[in-house]
Design goal:
Blueprint lengths: L2 E2 L12 H10 L10 H4 L1 E6 L5 E7 L13 E5 L9 H12 L3 E5 L21 H11 L5 E6 L1 H10 L8 E7 L5 H8 L5 H21 L15 H12 L5 H8 L12 E6 L12 H6 L3 E6 L15 H19 L1
């Protein structure tokens, strides 16, 4: 029954969920662990089997004189409408490279700053592109570990539940995953998430316009500016572009919740009890009780991909890095 106690205590000023969420996304400063580390980050382009590409930022490990090669390779997956340079990605990457990991922070299609070549983009259950990045991570000959936030964490859960999962992946961590997508979509459609929906839909609309200008058979943009919920957007664009019958089918078939009982490698999940994106059914209590590989921590606060903390290393980063470090070292010792 690996349900973990939580030691997270937000600063007094960040105890409100929306403050914690927004401050983490917009106000945090991330410092790299050593001088020149930022300049050592290298962008790679991976070609995909369907003729598209994925841009990946490779962060080399910080190594003390005489240290061995990296202790493992961590693939970091960002959230909805995020990218590899988001504060939460850079914060975790900085902590992992300080501990001697090589980090591959990848950009989902259309998220790296350059439009991708094909009609498709990304979605909550996309695992082909994640598998492509994992395949590249395998070339280092080291233990491979995964870490993801929100949508990126959902994709990791789906990937771990698939039979094709790479045998080199020894552990994973997922933060702020809305595990029950149909229920989370209803929460997001409510008045408490209007600010977030405005933010997400603003950038998604721009991407749809760019796609429609290049692909004559792209779904119609009529009425798109009036969309206010994911139901409208996913019904018009996400579902048909990725082969789902409708938005409800997309959410049901891409939720993490149904696959959690079948995950058979160590997976740490960190959620906040006050996550503004999550319904009560988004917290996988039963799966954690029944699956010895699933380690669930539900902090009393933290918002969505928040967990604002004092000091350079935030609570979520320390917890994820501790878990991945322990399992990378255990894998190496075998």
């Amino acid at each position: 029954m690996p349900i973990l106690p939580s030691g997270y205590v937000p600063p007094l000023w960040a105890r409100q969920a929306h403050v914690n969420t927004i401050w983490a996304a917009k106000c945090r400063r991330v410092r790299y662990p050593e001088a020149g580390q930022r300049e050592r980050v290298r962008r790679l382009r991976l070609e995909t089997p369907d003729g598209d590409f994925l841009d990946v930022d490779e962060h080399p490990p910080v190594r003390e004189s005489g240290a061995a090669e990296a202790r493992g390779v961590v693939v970091i997956s960002h959230g909805l409408e995020g990218h590899s340079c988001r504060r939460y990605v850079r914060g975790l990457a900085a902590e992992l490279v300080r501990r001697g990991f090589r980090v591959l922070a990848w950009n989902m299609r259309s998220c790296s700053g350059e439009p991708n070549r094909t009609r498709r983009l990304y979605h909550m259950g996309e695992t082909d592109d994640l598998a492509r990045v994992v395949s590249h991570a395998e070339t280092f000959g080291l233990p491979v570990l995964l870490a993801g936030f929100s949508m990126g964490g959902n994709q990791i859960c789906r990937y771990l539940g698939e039979a094709r999962r790479s045998p080199r992946v020894c552990a994973a961590a997922a933060v702020s995953v809305p595990c029950d997508l149909p229920a989370a979509a209803q929460v997001m459609a409510g008045p408490g998430c209007r600010l977030y929906m405005h933010y997400f839909l603003r950038t998604l609309r721009a991407k749809m316009r760019e796609k429609a200008a290049r692909f004559p058979d792209f779904p119609s943009l009529d009425g798109m500016d009036d969309f206010r919920t994911f139901n409208e957007f996913d019904e018009r664009f996400t579902a048909p572009l990725h082969g789902f019958a409708d938005a409800a089918t997309y959410w049901r078939e891409c939720s993490a919740l149904p696959v959690l009982p079948y995950i058979d490698i160590p997976l740490y999940m960190l959620l906040a009890a006050d996550d503004p994106f999550c319904a009560p059914s988004c917290y996988p209590w039963a799966a954690a009780r029944d699956n010895a590989h699933l380690f669930l921590e539900v902090a009393p606060g933290g918002g969505h991909v928040g967990f604002v903390s004092r000091g350079e290393v935030w609570y979520s980063e320390r917890r994820v890095a501790d878990f991945l470090t322990a399992h990378a070292d255990r894998s190496t010792d075998r």
